[in-house]
Amino acid sequence: MKRIALALLACSIAFAGSKTYTLNVWQPVVLAGTELKTGQYRMDVDGDKVTLKAGRQMVEANVKVESTNTKNRSTTLVMEERDGKMHIREILLGGTDTKLVVN
Hints:
The chain is mainly beta. Helices cover about 15% and strands about 55% of the residues.
């Protein structure tokens, strides 16, 4: 019985770090050198890595997790223009006080 309890505890700890969010992209943006088209993406955050998926397209990027001063009302992209294209600089996670700074 103790082995089962420990196995369940280990599984719950392994999944505790990974969170999933929905991200709506309203204009083409670049993340980790890949241009994302407009649409809805599934965003998985696991430690210092973020993965965006939509259909067959998948992009991974390294991020730095930081806290904001207040709770974010919605998941929001902070972008900057470089080389004539918009690049994701930060992602504010809705319902949390967390932001992901793209490396």
